Amino acid sequence: MKTPVWTWLPGSSEPTLAGTLAADAGRGQFQYHDAYMEMADARPLDPMELRFTRRAAGIPILRNHGLPRVIIDAMPAGYGADRLNARHERNLSSLELLELGPPDGVGAIEVCQDIERKLQWRPRLLSELIEHINDLEESAPSSRAIRRLLDDGMTSAGGERPKVTLQHDGRLWLAKLQDRGDVPHLPAREFVVMQMAEELDIQVPRILLEQHEGREVFLVERFDRCGDPVQPQRHLFASAHTVLGLEANTTPGDARRSYLVLAEQMRRWIADKAALQIDLQELWRRMAYNALVGNGDDHPRNHGLIHEGRGWRLSKAFDITPLPTFIRVLALSVAPDGSQECSVLNLLDACPHFGFDPREAATWLGDAAVHVASHWQQRLRDNGVPAGHIGQFALAFDLATELAEYPNQIDEAMDEIELQRRKGRRRQHPR
Fold first, then answer.
1. Does domain 239-422 match CATH 1.10.8?
2. Ordered strands of the 312-314 beta sheet
3. DSSP 3-state helix, strand, coil percentages of the chain (rounded to 5)?
4. What element of type H or E holds 362?
5. pLDDT in tens, 14-61
6. Inter-residue contact 363 to 357 (CB < 8 Å)
7. Cα separations (Å) of 187 from 211, 400, 409?
8. Which of 145, 228, 285, 409 lies deepest, with the highest CB count within 10 Å?
9. Is this model's pTM higher than 0.90 or not?
């Protein structure tokens, strides 16, 4: 059976039928409708895997259980998939998850027979969540307020931790709360490093941190939605997992799980050359910033590209969180030889691959290290983290602290890079 695939065209708050998807026995077939391809503002849902074609057989999807990668991005996963499976008392198929999940998933794609049911969904209010937080038992985790707000219901937003899309102040927000088993003050930690990222010219969404009955609520504006929060316009989104062409079972250590490979793929996705140059340098800054704040969870689904009507661009940064067990190793490789070790030498040696002048990048790295090292502890205090807990996160900020105290390390790394290049030695680049 073929399932309709819907998308939102630029500037529209109503879905448009783009095509159909059939998946069976691990194989799939995607087919665009001719009427969609003839629309003036139509664009491929994925310019690599789902290029426009009028072939009668459509586009064969031979991997990932027959699902296009950009559709997997829109599918309930982690916490959302668990709640759907629990509600239906069985493990749902991928197409069932797409059909039954609420329309709060990332991006501008819905795969379902009943689009009207999706359009009737309404996001809850922040004030309603706060009421449930205020009613929590003292021993209950903050995240239980989300389950009570949704009546133990579902979300299509990805990730392993509970979250919910809410209306507040005329916008849509993703709310994150402390869950049982989380390291202490996870919402406050994420807020602080996202706040510092913005101060260092990294593009982040609007963020808020609120305290209610001593419980932290971290709010991130939905950058893939705009307009009326009840009937929003939606923007196409492709995770770095999709842009890199990874399979569902791709494991850490795969050569494609690389910032440098992601930069190379961005050269294929982003048509505007001026925008591409801006975004490549932004990607390098994010890579370096993750190293400075100990965000070792920078996996391919925590980066992405977005299409807001004028072509694909690097999306705003999200899910940047300092890890107390950080050992200066990122989830994506940072160096031409495939190393994930985020040393100063590796970070700066990769600059040319991002079109970034190493001297300019070195200046940014030094300034960013000083900013992070001099602010992270006070920012955590200012946002309610007790002094006894702040020291637990010191390892996450160790590189920033070290570079702030010994800035000559950056000069030494630059000297080593220039020496190796004069000798004609170039480290192997990924393919």
1. no
2. 236-239, 304-307, 312-314
3. 40, 20, 40
4. helix 358-382
5. 999 999 999 988 899 999 999 999 999 999 999 999 999 999 889 999
6. no
7. 10, 21, 33
8. 145
9. yes
